[in-house]
Amino acid sequence: MITMVSGAREVTGVVSYTPEQQQAIFNLDQSLVVTAGAGSGKTRVLVGRYVNILDQQAADIDEVIAITFTEKAASEMKGRAWEAIVAREKESCSPEEARRWRELARRLQSARISTIDSFCAQLVRDYPVEAGVDPEFVIMDEFDAHRALLAAARSAVDKMLQRKDPYLTSLAVEKGFGSVAQGLIRVYERMRMTGRSWKEHLSITVASLDRSEAQAEQSLTDLKSRLMALAESGGVSISVDNLQLGASWLMAEVDAAVAALKLKKRSDEQKEIDQLTSVLHDSVLDRHAQDGARSVIDACALMDEEYRAQRGHGALVDFTGIEIAARDLLRDTPAGEACRSRFKFVLVDEYQDTNRLQDEIISRITGDPYGNRRFLVGDPKQSIYRFRGAVVEVFEEAVRAAGGDADKCRRVELGTNFRSVGPLVDVTNALFTGILGPERFLPAKSHRRTPSSEPLHAELMLAYLEGREKSPRGELEAEIVARRIADMVDNGERLVCEASAGADEPRVTDRPVRYGDIAVLLRAMTRVKEFEAALARSGIPYYVVAGTGFYGRPEVMWLMDLLRAVDDRSDVTSLAAVLRSPVFGLSDESLLRLKTAAGGLDLAVWGGGDGAESGVVGAADALTGVELDKFHRARACLTKLGTAVGRMTVGGLMKAAIELAGFEEYFAFAEQGAQSIGNLRKLVQMAEDEASSRSCLRDFIVDMDLADDLSAREAEAAMEEESADTVKIMTVHKSKGLEFPVVFLPELAREARRSGGGLFEYSLPLGLAIPVQVGDEWCEKTRHSQAVADEIRAGDDEEGKRCLYVAATRASDYLVMSATLPGPGARARSGGGPSWYEHLSSAIPGLDERGACGADGAGGADAANTVVLDEQTGAAILVRRYEESAVRRAMRAQGEALAGAEDGEGECEGESADISEFAPLVRPVWSVAAAGTAAAAEAAAAAGGATAACAPCQFSVSALMCFSHCPRWYLYEYVCRLGRIPRDTARAFGSELQLNAAVRGQIVHSACERCGRETDLAQARALVLEELRFRGVRRGRAEAVADELMPMIDTFLLRYPGLAREGDKEVGFLMDLGGPVVSGVMDRVDVQADGSVLVVDLKTNRVRGQAVDEAMARYGVQLDAYAVAAGRVHGTDCVTARLHFLYPDEVRERSYGPDELREAAEKLKELAVRAARHDLRNTPIQRIAECDRCYFAPLCGIVRGHLKAPLDARELHEVREASFDEEVLPVISLSDDEYLDLGGVGEVDYD
After folding, report:
1. Highest-scoring range by mean pLDDT, 477-486, 664-673, 817-826, 1068-1077
2. Which H, E and C letters describe 70-131, residue by residue?
3. How much is the pTM?
């Protein structure tokens, strides 16, 4: 589960602060600059200072501004402030004080706790006239802003050409009009983000170029002097008086003078002259750049005017525009003075990621002198948003200012890491002292203890490529990462440390790793698909957080090609693409025959412009057999869609296209088919969401093309929920502010991407760099442009080190890094930046390009050695080495095993290894809930009889329940992995996280789990609202959902008062049944006074009366599994399994003695063995009541209540003609109750 950084981990409930935290929270007499390392509790400090300001009544809640970096962080801070305020209300000594805190809690929702952009927007809305914007202004989205920018850039370049500007005219001829416009957009955005005027940008550039002018004069003087000296020594007569900087023939004259000396080509004198000439040449180029720089900046000024016109002169505003408007408002104006007198305290988080414009806004709010009004929190080591304009020097300047004048502003250093365990803190200290340097890295102090003296909490996995050719690194490394994750979870590695209240001090224990503990952090999402595929092959559930690649998915491109073809019948390219796509499947030869026979591919499909069908008839004659059937089906689909254009909404047209073309039927059994179907439905939802602003198909197509051109970061449809027990995959930037027990950092050897390379470049210290024309030639590398490029490159390299620091410090308990190293004789690195592995090499003793300590990489995965990083602290890292050939052999073996499982092999109990590949289990495990007990140890020893030759297959309790109810449902969902994708796309892909019944149930379970013995109804409601806020639910929606869920929470609090809420919660188990292994998680396990065990499973089904008994029968498999597991964990043969239906507050129980437990275990084993033997060929269709509403009904051949021939894997790939009126596979749209309350029986969401 992803959690925001808490900073300190109190387990006793007593609030305690370090001395540095106390200074930051309680010193309100002066401004403070707080440098806070990773995990040092800065959020806690911010909240503490905010509440302390209110407590001391130093300012009212409306007079305090708190600026955070993200909306999520703002929501987190509000939530924590609310909890602190509510606690103060309860601790109040008088009714008046309690009323004051209660009023503050009520006003907190409107408090100014937000991002800098949200604050500026609110400020401008308060003073729209003074800010020069429309009072009802709208903030533009990314697409609209880029569209307006592109139009403004084209207009600006066009106007400059009309003015006959010599520089831009020549550049447009050389590079093209569009390239110049795109280059102008890039540099315009960078310069505008600084908040400086165009005159200031020109002054910075000219000043930098003037320094080149001085260098040119000095270079020319040195060259003249040296030429004359060589001429005298050689007895040659030359004249250098005509060598003048302003002369257009200067370099030609220099070449003539040098030629007259007749120097030997490789002589020292010739080399010296060549060096002086080169310096002069570069300096002369910079002299030519001044006029060009003026032209480009003039074009930017014109573009700014046109962009404002495109935005309706203040009716539309982008994010940079809102910040500029706020800055201008806060200048010496009456509105600015009113703001400065209104706000008494300004608290800013993540100040290392602000830019110059935002810094100016903060400075103008606090004024100068700012007294005690400023509170800036940041960490220069975590500044990683340079691509967004962040300037780390802003915070560094604030830190230096605080260190220089303690009376004006004081610096506070938060140096204790509350997030990571001690050995891991030692590792990061040792690594980054070497990477960042001791002058920029102050080692952190550790706070968290570990239950053992095991020093290894970090490892480095090195994969060695073979041969000189460049192998696909992503696939190899992804496989190693996936297998390591599988080993961690399957072997129950106890890597996660947890603290709980003890008699005298907190008690520290460890527990096995779960999938939900693990995060894979990538530097970029370019190779995310390879990691997804590797995790899927190992049966590991995963969730990609805000991924990319949606517009590049084949199913999205094919559907967009289909829409383009029906929208523009002359678009032959799109038409050919959709006809040859696997959905229709025409061969290239067939397309050529159609084009030849009809005179054009468009004529073959659409006929002549006058409606003549001759082309179609001729095309039909050109094909035979299956290809002809494919063409008829494709043409029927295209024709019907073509007639519907303009008569249906875009969303409706897309639904019809998906149904008529058979997209979902094709993808049903394709690899990652569920993901493809989800992406198609997400595209439909995007079309429906844009219905109000984009009313026609052409507009939607233009928007999608623009998004694709922009490489928009649109994530694919989510197949797993973020809060589920899944491995999280995200970028390092996305992980900022988060923590995870176990972190994987792959692709260390990947080169860093450079941020430069545009037609124009800009650096704030040096100004604008442009290509220069000399005569008929263009030169893009001048002395000035190289200085700008070097400055950008240096900044990128430093940020790369900081990015590695951020990534490594996300881990709270265990860190795994990996790299793929080149084989012998491999090509050298290209022009990218230094990799993370290169940075690590400078900090890990003996680590070189072939691995640790000169290792040769032999020995495979078992070849490992420990490298000590710091003798004093004992910091060490485990280095594992893998050979490419060994990994690929294992991949092939796994692929063959999976293929055997798909072919129906392994028909007997002893051959269940194929099925186990879907959920790999390295060794049989009895239970993990009470591994430390004697009973568990005896049970585990008794379970050791399973041999490697009979590898166990693993089933979740949910899978067995599903199999017992409908074997084909089990096969579709758990073996074929199709997943139940809701047909109601509005519910599946809304702007908020889908709040279906399953998610609501998770919220109730989580809130009940967190309720302590003293929790009352108000506190429980706060827990529910916190869960909803964590899932991104808006305030109004959250309150409504909380009202709906609180009756169930109330039932729980009444049924389990005080100490009854204690006990083991969320107890996970892996249970060996003598072959099959069953896994699950029990809500509660309580040991009674008589030694018997009570297992409680909370249900949120909305059922009453007889439906409760029916649900009880349906959950029989779950009760059996939980009873057997609880009995084995606690070594008892007396177990009671209880289902507590919270909605009607009804309880159903089943008691188990020795005989019943033995019988239940045998039944579970028999059920698992039967499940392992089933495939689609030997599993007949069972017609039950739920079939009419089941998502998988079309795959069984059940269409609108009628049982037809089922579709097997082969038939689902066949194409057949469809129409609007024929009975095709229907799009089923169910309400929440219909979807989850099938057949009048409650919850069937077995997950």
Report:
1. 477-486
2. CHHHHHHHHHHHHHHHHHHHHHCCCHHHHHHHHHHHHHHHHCEEEEHHHHHHHHHHHCHHHH
3. 0.67
